[in-house]
Amino acid sequence: MISLDKVVISLGGSILIPGENDGKFLFDIAELLKEMSKSYQIYVVCGGGKVARYYINTARDMGAVEYDLDTLGIMATRINAKMLQLALKDVSNSEIPETVEDASKLGSEGKIVIMGGTIPGHTTDGVSASLAEAVGAIRIVNATSVDGVYTADPKKDPQAKKISKMSFSELNEMLKDGHDAGKSGVFDAMGADIVMRNHLPLLIVSGRDLEEMKKAISGSSDIKGTIISD
Questions:
Q1: Mean pLDDT of 157-167
Q2: What is the pTM of this model?
Q3: What's the rounded Cα separation, in Å, for the pair 18 and 16?
Q4: Cα–Cα distance between 96 and 94 in angstroms, integer?
Q5: Residues 211-220: contacts with CB within 8 Å, 24+ apart?
Q6: Cβ distance 205 to 147 under 8 Å?
Q7: CB neighbours (10 Å) of residue 20?
Q8: In this model, does residue 221 exceed pLDDT 80?
Q9: Which of 37, 68, 90, 129 is the most buried (most CB within 10 A)?
């Protein structure tokens, strides 16, 4: 079997299950992933989105501690991962791995690898970066509900401007300063540290724009989102 370059996709739960033609989208993105898997070894880490927020917020109202809230969020990510796996059928792993180590071993089977969260305290962005580091990926695609990194939260500030390219150090400074853009599609601090030390290009795009997703997975510089690199 020819060894393919590896690409990790951090697929936000807000993309997978927003309550907008979710079944159709799952099948559509499954078809895209199948197509791209002919050229790349694909790994997908699914976020929790509104499913996770529902359980977390409800449990928080009940007085649950943060560890249990994180655990509920992780369970939700694995449910979303299973939904995508059902759309992919036998093209992906049948069981959802619970660790980066287990996920990294599945790539040798030549299938699309799907997983969710791992342990409390680690976001799925952080898991995606850890997985990319473990398998030696050439890039990470962060598929979000926002089409790139902005100077402020574009949902709240109409004056927010999109940043088409930025460096790892600029990303680190943005996160360190607690910038609003950190809430608008930027990796978390753990993930940012990992991509920086591994010089891993990070492409942030609108996850429901499948043409944009295709370009990002391919590493095209002609995307509407944001490219973060050296």
A1: 92
A2: 0.93
A3: 6
A4: 7
A5: 212/147, 213/29, 213/32, 213/141, 213/143, 214/32, 214/35, 214/36, 216/141, 216/143, 217/7, 217/9, 217/36, 217/40, 217/42, 217/141, 218/36, 218/39, 219/138, 219/139
A6: yes
A7: 8
A8: yes
A9: 129
Q: Which amino acid is at 152?
A: A
- Nearest of 9, 1, 48 to residue 135 by alpha carbon: 9
Q: State whether residue 75 is helix, strand or coil.
A: helix
Tokens linked to 230 = 């050296």
Residue 21: partners with Cβ closer than 8 Å, 6 or more residues away: none
Q: At what angle do helices 66-88 and 49-61 cross, to 10 degrees?
A: 150
Beta-strand relationship, 149-150 and 162-163: antiparallel
Tell me which H or E stretch contains 45.
Answer: strand 41-46
Overall size of the chain counted in residues: 230
In the DSSP assignment, the letter for residue 107 is: G
Computed from CA positions of residues 113, 117, 118, 122, in that sequence, does the dihedral angle turn out positive or negative?
Answer: positive
Beta bridge partners of 179: none
User: Taking a C-beta distance cutoff of 8 angstroms, is the pair 116, 72 a contact?
Assistant: no
Q: Which of 9, 6, 40 has the alpha carbon at shortest distance from 202?
A: 9
CA 164 to each of CA 20, 88, 150: distance values in angstroms, whole numbers, following the listed order? 28, 32, 9
